[in-house]
Amino acid sequence: MHLIEGSVIPATGFGTWTLKGDDCSELVGQALAAGYRAIDTAASYDNEEAVGAGLRASPVPRGDVFVTTKVWWTDLAPADFERSAEASLRRLGLDHVDLLLIHWPNPKIALKDTVAALNRVQRQGLTRHIGLANFTTSLMAEAMGLSDVPLICNQVEYHPYLDQKKVYDACRAAGMAMISYCPLYRGGPLFEEPAVTRAAASHGRTPAQIVLRWHVQQRGVGAIPRTTRKERLAENAAIFDFSLSEAEMDEIGALRSAHRRICDYGFSPEWDLP
Known about the structure:
By secondary structure, this protein is of the alpha/beta class. It has one domain: TIM Barrel, CATH 3.20.20. 41% of the residues lie in helices and 14% in strands. It is built from eleven helices and eight strands. The protein has helices at residues 21-33, 48-57, 78-92, 111-123, 137-146, 165-174, 188-191, 194-203, 207-216, 230-237, 246-253, and strands spanning 14-15, 38-40, 66-71, 97-102, 127-133, 151-157, 177-181, 221-223. It has an eight-stranded parallel beta sheet. Helix 3 crosses helix 4.
């Protein structure tokens, strides 16, 4: 298992956003068979039961799989938070997860109360580790100051089209991992960028493998690609037997000037600007 440098979190995981029912369960099992050892879900994905079924059907021991789930932004008041965490475990069929995240910040609920609840569920053994998702640098700093135990990551949208340098630098300074969701953007135009296609031709790899390698080759960064296609699972996992050159990393990284964001909602925080 390849871990993010300085972290307990696997460098790649299988994202399950939008996956449902038997298809989700089967893909979780297939991801584990392909070598993934991290599975990412959330209460809001409405698929924790299916993820749990996939975990139970797999011969991979539970102790070898790093399971992440998240509490939705409307459930961040302390009592709601604890109920949500307990409900996630029931749906997953687990006695604990490996990582529990605040899925999105909520300015209408005091962050100190939410972080206190996050600490409590960790002390109660519902999760081994705790962290954040979709937090800006200022909210990260506030949350870290309120937590009694380390927050081990911030899971954020990140791909070559989105400049997340400020969040990345803040994570590095804090000793936190930065986990990329939507790491492949949405394929399409990103996979046709000359910086990506040249590297793919040079290394004999697919564009998706090049982009995922770009993620994990950055210190402290992991990625949780999602796919609905079984054949993509092994492809997306096979990124640890080659390296991109510094020039290739820089050329792909230069695409950040596009600053395209996929996940931006009415409840999103005021994002850090480049």
